[in-house]
Structure formats: C-alpha cells, structure tokens
Amino acid sequence: MNPATRARSRIRTILGGVVAICGLAAMLYSPELGWSFQSQGPDLSKLKDPEFIAAGSKLFAPTCGSGYCHGTGGMGGGAPRIRDIGLDPAFAFKRISDGAPGTAMMGFKEQFNNEELWKLVAFLLSSSKNQTLAPDPVIRPTNETSSKSPEAERSNIASEVTGDPVAGKALFFDSSSQVSCHLCHTFEGSGTPIGPDLSNSPAGAQAILHSIVLPRVVENNRFVILTMKDGEIIRAVKKDEDAEAMKVYDVTALPAVLRTVQPENISKVEPMKASPMPSDYSSRYTMKQLLDLITFLKSSGPGTTRVTLRDLF
C-alpha cells in the first residue's frame, strides 16, 4: 500500500470513529432536553406536563422559594434567579441533587427521590410567564388541604429537612480543615479552649446560625490586638499573663498558635473589636452542612436534638 493509500485509509478510520461517537451522542442528546439522564429519572417528556410542573412548584416553594434562597417562583432572592434563564435539564438535576460546593446550596438527593428531583427540574424549566400551566398547590390549595394556610403547608414540608448530628460532629472535629471548629472551641471536654465552650448552649438554632455566618462584634478583654515594638501586629486571645510574660493564642492566621511575649516588647495593647472567627463559613459550608453542625451543637443542650431547615429561618 503506497503512502497516499495508507493516508486515505487512516482518514476513513478516523472519520468512522467520529461518526460512531456522534451517533452515540445523538442518541443521548435532545435539543430540547439536553443530556437525557434517562436512567436516573422518569420519562423526560413529563418535563412539559403541567401536573408534573405543578408538583415541582409545590416542592420548590417551601425549600427553595424563601427570600433567603431563590425567591418566590425561583425569580431571585438571596440566591440567584433560576427561572427563565435557559437551564440545561441535566445540569439542573445534578445541581439540585448534589448542591453547589463552596456555597450555601445544599444537595437534596437525600430528601427527594429521583422523580421528585425531576419535578423540581420541570418547574425550573417552565416559564414564569405562563403560571396557569403550572398552578402551585401550595399557593392555591386543593380541597384536601384547604383547611391549612399556605404558610402552614410550607412549614410542614420545610420541617421534614432535618440535621444529622453525626455529620455535624464530623464537621466540628474535621482534622483536615485549618478552620475547623475544634481548633478554637471545645465541646464536652474535647477541642481547644481559645473561644467559648460550645457545650450545652441555650441559644436557639437561628441564633447559632447567625453567630456562625455573620460578622460579630466582641466584648471580651481576652481578645486583644498587640502592636510590638518591632512593628509586628498580633491578633491575640490571652491565655494567661503575669508580670514577666503574656501567653497568647496568635489568631492572626489560623490555625492559632500559642506564643509567649514579653511585656517590654509590647508597644500597645488594644481591644479587638471584631471576632477572630472566620467570616466565610456561609461559603465554606452548604446549608445542609450548617444544619448538621447546628444539630450537633444542640445535641448536648436542653430539649430535643431535632433541628429542621425551618428552625434556621
């Protein structure tokens, strides 16, 4: 076989492979439905079924439709708008199932089965301009639920999403994280006593959430900023001190380190006005992880350890 013939043969082989791959892709892809994920859900023709969409609307309202999340009808709130933006069905299914790493968006694959997840996708893909095709049973209750207010219906469904104290404990004592809670706090005798002991907290779930994710002002004489004579500035939490030395946890960068500083080397001592606790836990943890963590923190306090998503808001 001469070089030209061999070259033509190789080209035919390559093109044949491309055609085969494209044929497989064509079987998996639909211009209207994207990559099908048929093995993970119901018949995708239901994505345009008004009853299927309405069921998704009912699931969406209490779990994702608050002002803290994606807003009424998915049109935007604290989280982005997710209706009328041309979402790909497969992408939407995976995002709802697994959540969005690095954000407060939790995954719902443990709360909803595959059919329910696809109902949520159907609702998100439906047009907000044609709500008559997708009546929301929560907003317009049927005769079976007419005795309950829309707020009660939302509360009932949101109350089904509960925290896992075992998963929360794993987060609290996560040795792979440089900002793990146990590096600065103790819980039932375990951890590091830099910040407050978090055992037996009387605070409610919402108050604990706020203390984790919102910037805080501190009024504690143990929390100080030391300006050293050589110009170094140390954000510190005092451990103990006497006339000869001051032992402090240096929290300028985490994890904190224990240091001994001499009084004669200190130029100025100022109160620390903002908590040294990291302020980015809302992006480090998903909402489900925060719920698990709070459930764990409540596990040694008074009352029940059951904490639901509704309790956080």
Average pLDDT over all residues: 77
Question: What Rg is obtained from the alpha carbons, in whole angstroms?
Answer: 27 Å
Q: Main beta sheet: strand number and arrangement? A: 5 strands, antiparallel
Instruction: Please provide the ordered H/E string of secondary-structure elements.
Output: HEEHHHHHEEHEEEEEHH
**According to CATH, what is the topology of the largest domain?**
Cytochrome Bc1 Complex, Chain D, domain 2
Q: Name the CATH homologous superfamily of the largest domain.
A: Cytochrome c-like domain
Summarize this structure as a short list of keywords or feature phrases.
alpha+beta; 5-stranded antiparallel sheet; Cytochrome Bc1 Complex, Chain D, domain 2; 313 residues; 9 strands; 9 helices; 3 domains
What can you see in these coordinates?
It is built from nine helices and nine strands. The chain has 313 residues and is α+β, with helices and mostly antiparallel strands. The chain has three domains: 125 residues, Cytochrome Bc1 Complex, Chain D, domain 2 (Orthogonal Bundle), CATH 1.10.760.10; 85 residues, Cytochrome Bc1 Complex, Chain D, domain 2 (Orthogonal Bundle); 49 residues, SH3 type barrels. Helix 2 packs across helix 5 and helix 6 packs across helix 9. The longest helix is centred in the first third of the chain and has 26 residues. The protein is elongated, with a radius of gyration of 27 Å.
